[in-house]
Amino acid sequence: MTDHDTSGTDKTGGAPVGAGKVYTLLDADRRPYSSAVPGKLGGHSCSKVYGRLNCPAALRAIAKGMYVKHRVFFADEATAIAAGYRPCGTCLPEKYQAWKREHR
Asked: When you count CB atoms within 10 A of the terminal residue's CB, does the N or C end of the chain come out lower?
């Protein structure tokens, strides 16, 4: 999916993230669509886990050269859940615990 810069500005001189960029997000039916606004959450298409863009677990996997090929992005949490993704236990521990209680 399209690269997401979480720093707040692009690398060409400080333009706001999203200025002139197109991002690929997933909808509730897991279909990709183009958006002028970057996703607020990232996910992994194989494990069906979603979390914050700065999740330590995701960043470690990316640093090891994994994960990027299967990374997806969502506009919001409701869309990630509707697409069948669960919260990340690392960056969303309270939401993950609630999900675990509901899915026993």
From this structure: C
CB contact set of 23 (below 8 Å; sequence gap of 6+): 2, 4, 34, 35, 36, 37, 38, 39, 73
57-89, pLDDT tens digit by residue?
999 999 998 888 899 999 999 999 999 999 999
2 neighbors 22 (Cβ within 8 angstroms): yes
Structure tokens at 24: 């690929």
pLDDT of residue 87: 98
Q: pTM score > 0.70 for this model?
A: yes
- Count of all residues that appear for the chain in the document: 104
CA distance 94 to 12: 37
DSSP state of 15: P
Q: How far is CA 92 from CA 23, 31, 38, in A?
A: 24, 24, 20
